[in-house]
Amino acid sequence: MTAPTLPGRDALESLSESFESAEPQEIVRWAVETYGDCLSVGASFGGASGMAILHMAAQLKPDVHVFVVDTDYLFEETHETMRRATEDIPLRNVQVYKSGLTHEEQNSRYGAALWMRDPDFCCEIRKIEPNRRALEGKQAWISGLRRDQSESRANVPIVAWNEKFGVVKLNPLANWDSAKTWKYVLEHGVPYNPLLDRGYASIGCYNCTIPGVQGRAGRWEGFDKEECGLHT
Ligand code: SF4
């Protein structure tokens, strides 16, 4: 069997346009067949979109590399969702990446509750750096971003070169809305974070997540910040 030809960076824009009318499953299949073991699926075990993507990818490749950035500040419900999904979907290759600094080391070096003073720097230490390690040696990264999630995500491409992490980034669910995503999750019996049934619309670190508000407005209350920097 001949290996599939990898698209060059200059071909990604037209490829992305050609995927605008494709179903997410078709895009995930293309990614699995094109990048194989060099493909990673980023998972937060927080939102329904990410759970749908995990299910789609694992149906095609049960040992697909799934990475989780554990900031040390994840809800217990998020850990429980990871355990359930690993068993039920199932996921055969889940790898957890953590900051090089423990919570205590961060406190002693930069002071307590850094997230209340400089959330960008806290996200850099606890999310961006581990995310970089997770993608070392990989060629492509799938995430569950949707354009309807926030204004800052309204124009995410389906496929694009990601300079920050040096990989091709895919957002196969870009064109789906919340209703389509939930239909997929419920029809396929995909496990999801129980906090989504308790008023949380977007789930990240417990320090920076509040329930009862729509979209990503419940993240980083009091700051003009909607993204942790992984997807910008
Ligand atoms: S979401 Fe909050 S606690 Fe988590 S890494 Fe970012 S600033 Fe720190």
Provide a compact summary of the structure.
The chain is an alpha/beta fold and 232 residues long.
- What summary fits the major beta sheet? 6 strands, mixed
- Multimeric state: single chain
Number of domain units: 1
CATH topology (level 3) name: Rossmann fold
Strands side by side in the biggest sheet? 3-2-1-4-6-5
Low-confidence stretches: none
Distance between the termini: 37 Å
CATH superfamily: HUPs
CATH architecture: 3-Layer(aba) Sandwich
The CATH top-level class label: Alpha Beta
Bound molecules: iron/sulfur cluster
What is the structural class? alpha/beta
How would you characterize the overall build of this protein?
This protein has 232 residues and is α/β, with parallel strands linked by helices. It contains 8 helices and 6 strands. Helix 2 (24-35) crosses helix 3 and helix 3 packs across helix 8. The protein is globular, with a radius of gyration of 17 Å. The structure holds iron/sulfur cluster (SF4).
Structural descriptors:
12% strand; 232 residues; globular; binds iron/sulfur cluster; 8 helices; alpha/beta; 6-stranded mixed sheet; Rossmann fold
Layout of helices and strands:
Blueprint: H1 12-18, H2 24-35, E1 39-43, H3 48-60, E2 65-70, H4 76-88, E3 94-98, H5 103-110, H6 114-117, H7 119-134, E4 140-142, E5 159-162, E6 167-170, H8 178-187
Parallel strand pairs: 1-2, 1-4, 2-3, 4-6
Antiparallel strand pairs: 5-6
This protein binds iron/sulfur cluster.
